[in-house]
Each structure stands twice: as C-alpha cells, then as structure tokens.
C-alpha cells in the first residue's frame, strides 16, 4: 500500500512540474527577450545613454579647438561732440572722432592654445573609449552571469516544485496515519531551506537583469534570456597566450593609461601657455579726429601694452609645474596598476582553466543520470527518504558549483580582455 502511494505521488509530482514549466514558458514568452551577446553589444553601442553623453563631451572639446583658432575681434569707437564752451570752430556736434584698434597676441599664445585644445579632444576621446571598455565588460559579465544563474535557478525550481508537491501529499498521508511525522518535517525543512536559497539567487538575478537592461536600454518589464553557445570544454585558451603579449597589449591599448600619458602632455603644453601669458600682448590703434586740437582731420596711430612689473603670471606658472609633477606620478601609478591587473587576472584565469579542464566532461551527464536512478530507486523504496534527499541535495550542490565554475571561467576571460584593453577571448 505504502509503495503504491509513493509511486503515485511521484508520478503526480513529475506531471505537475512539467505542466508548471510549460505554462510558465507560454505565459512569459511575450515578455522575454532572447538575445545573443553580439546582439546585446549592438544594442549597447546604439542605445547606451552613458556612451551617447560621453560622445557629446568629444564634440564639446572639438568646439574648443574652433574657439582657440579664432583671432581677437578689432575694437571700434566713435565719439560725437555734445557741448563746448568754445565754439570758434563751429557747434560741438560737428566734432567727431573715430578709433579702431586690434589686439595681437604674442609669444605664440594662439598656437599654444590650439595645441592645448587638441590635447583636450584627445583626452575626451580616451575617456570615451575607457568608458566603453568598462561598460562593455559590465555588459558581457552581466550577460553570462544571468545565463548561469538561470541555469542554477532551474535546479532550485525543479527541487522546490518536487518537494512542495511531496510535502502536500505527505501531509495528507500523515493525517491518515500512513507515514511518520519525521518524514513530513524533514521534507518541510528541506523545502524552506531551498526556498530561502532560491530567493537570494533570484534577487541576484533581478539585480543583474536590471543593470543589463539599462546598458542596452531595454524596457523594464522585459525579461532577458541570454542565448549562449558555451564551447570552452577541454580548451586551453589562456595557456596558449604568452603573458608578455597580454602585458604589452595592455600598455598599448589601455585607454586609462593613454589618458594618463595625455594628461602629462597636456600639462607640459599648459606650462608653455602660462609662460607665454607672462608676455604682454600688443594693441595697435588708428584714430581720426575731425576737429582735433592739433588740426582739422587729424589722423593718428598708437600702440599699447601692459608693463610686466608686478604680475608676470608667477602663480599660474607654478601651478602648471606642480600639475606636471603630479601627472607624472599618476602616470607611474597607472603603469604599476596595469601590470598588477594583468598579472593577477592572468594567474586567476589560468588557475580556473586548469581546474575546469581537470573535470571529466561526462561528469555532469553521468551525475544527472545517477540522480534519475536515485529517483527511481526511491520510488521503489530501495532507499530511504533521507538518502534520497541527501542525494538530491548533493546533485543540486554539484550542479550549482559547476555552473559557478563555468561562470567564473568566462568572467576571468572577460577580465583579461578588460585589463588588457584587447578582445583576446571573445566567447559567444
């Protein structure tokens, strides 16, 4: 009698699970976004608001070059007489004077400012590409994180659905006196534990989903379902790339490092600009006076410049020199950080690759087959409930650990791409 009951409830449990997943899939299909990593990157490059905003910064820097190339406007003045006590030369309103002057910059200020503005454009471009590098790493990491966390969530869903159905049926049989209370409590305890773990996992998935949808500008109500072609089993990807090649590529292609170098260049040119500022500019003028004191129709020329007795831009020059020293220290710090990043991430990726490749490729398939046999043996009452739950818990733990290992391996490759600024390992 008891054996027949167990067989019946297992059959019902399996049917309920299959029906639940089928209904859920149909319900969510219309709100699900199936997307590959390449499609995600295309949408990201097209729609990401942070990138769009940073592009405007480049346009703004280019506008500053236009400003730096412009010459100073000439100044024009006109004066007309209103009143005079001596009207021997006629009424005051007949007296008119005109003046025009032009400021000429000295010491190559204009060319130096143009050079400074061009370096500003270069800095904005490097900031854009470094932002692109950072956001692309986040995008790809989130993509694979969602995929493997969803794979782990499937295991929880299967076990929770199975235990929930089992618990309901066991409670009914316990009420009839067919089974012991300890079996009901054991299943109930296992179910609550799994539900708590699943809730934490789902919270993590929701957080990653939210960040990912912002990156590609997807609707908040859409559920992203990554389409992954995982093909890393047994491959030695990191081991086949020399460490020095990764480091050399990082020195060339890390845009934060390029930005640090460009900042040193910018500050060197800025020092030249500050020194040039200490040299007075010259203003040339031409004046005409219709009824001047010297004589009628007077025409005169003039020159004007400040005398650099007190202000020779001493403060600006000192600040520029300090900025050069500071930027050189920051450049050295960036270089050290780049080397440290590549070294630590290379070791981590190599270690994860060796660890994953040491696993038997058929382990997951064999273990899945084993748990199916355990299920059948429990149905036949060849093993106890406690043994069945222990086997199932071991299956869940190992499957999740394998998913996490696969995720960590792909993430380590993405981190190497990130720290080198080069797409060495683009898993699709």
Written overview of the protein:
With 428 residues, the protein is of the alpha+beta class. The protein contains ten helices and six strands; from the N terminus they run H-E-H-H-E-E-H-H-E-H-H-E-E-H-H-H. The strands form two sheets. A four-stranded antiparallel sheet has the order 2-3-5-6, with no helix packed on it. Strands 1-4 form a two-stranded parallel sheet. The chain starts with a helix and ends in an 8-residue tail after the last helix.
Main-sheet strand order equals 2-3-5-6
* Quaternary: single chain
SSE pattern = HEHHEEHHEHHEEHHH
* Percent in strands: 5-15%
Helix content: 55-70%
Q: What's the overall geometry? A: elongated
User: What does the main sheet amount to?
Assistant: 4 strands, antiparallel
Structural class: alpha+beta
Comma- or semicolon-separated keywords:
10% strand; disordered N terminus; 428 residues; two-stranded parallel ribbon
């Amino acid at each position: 009698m008891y054996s027949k009951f167990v067989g019946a409830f297992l059959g019902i449990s399996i049917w309920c699970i299959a029906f639940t997943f089928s209904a859920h899939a149909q319900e969510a299909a219309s709100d699900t976004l199936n997307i590959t990593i390449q499609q995600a990157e295309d949408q990201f490059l097209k729609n990401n608001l942070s990138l769009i905003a940073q592009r405007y910064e480049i346009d703004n820097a280019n506008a500053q070059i236009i400003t730096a190339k412009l010459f100073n406007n000439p100044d024009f003045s006109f004066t007309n007489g209103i009143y005079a006590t001596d009207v021997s030369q006629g009424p005051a309103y007949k007296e008119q004077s005109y003046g025009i002057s032009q400021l000429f910059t000295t010491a190559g200020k204009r060319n130096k400012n143009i050079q400074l503005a061009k370096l500003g454009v270069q800095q904005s471009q490097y900031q854009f590409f470094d932002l692109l590098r950072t956001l692309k790493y986040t995008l790809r990491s989130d993509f694979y994180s969602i995929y493997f966390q969803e794979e782990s969530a499937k295991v929880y869903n299967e076990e929770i659905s199975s235990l929930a159905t089992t618990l309901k049926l066991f409670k009914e049989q316990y009420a009839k006196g067919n089974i012991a209370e300890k079996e009901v409590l054991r299943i109930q305890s296992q179910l609550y534990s799994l539900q708590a773990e699943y809730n934490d996992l789902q919270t993590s998935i929701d957080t990653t989903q939210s960040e990912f949808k912002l990156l590609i500008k997807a609707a908040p109500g859409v559920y992203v379902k990554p389409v992954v072609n995982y093909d890393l089993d047994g491959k030695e990807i990191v081991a086949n790339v020399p460490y020095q090649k990764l480091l050399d590529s990082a020195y060339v292609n890390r845009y934060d490092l390029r930005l640090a170098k460009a900042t040193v260049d910018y500050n060197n040119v800025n020092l030249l600009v500050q020194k040039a500022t200490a040299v007075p500019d010259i203003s040339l003028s031409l004046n005409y006076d219709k009824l001047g004191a010297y004589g009628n129709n007077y025409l005169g020329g003039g020159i004007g410049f400040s005398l650099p007795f007190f202000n020779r831009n001493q403060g600006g020059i000192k600040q520029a020199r300090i900025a050069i020293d500071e930027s050189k220290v920051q450049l050295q710090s960036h270089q050290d950080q780049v080397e440290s990043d590549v070294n630590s991430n290379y070791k981590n990726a190599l270690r994860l690759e060796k660890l994953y490749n040491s696993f038997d490729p058929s382990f997951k398939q064999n273990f899945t087959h084993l748990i199916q046999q355990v299920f059948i043996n429990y149905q036949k009452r060849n093993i106890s409930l406690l043994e069945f739950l222990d086997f199932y818990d071991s299956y869940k733990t190992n499957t999740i650990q394998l998913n996490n290992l696969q995720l960590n391996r792909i993430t380590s490759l993405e981190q190497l791409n990130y720290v080198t600024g080069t797409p060495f390992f683009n898993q699709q």
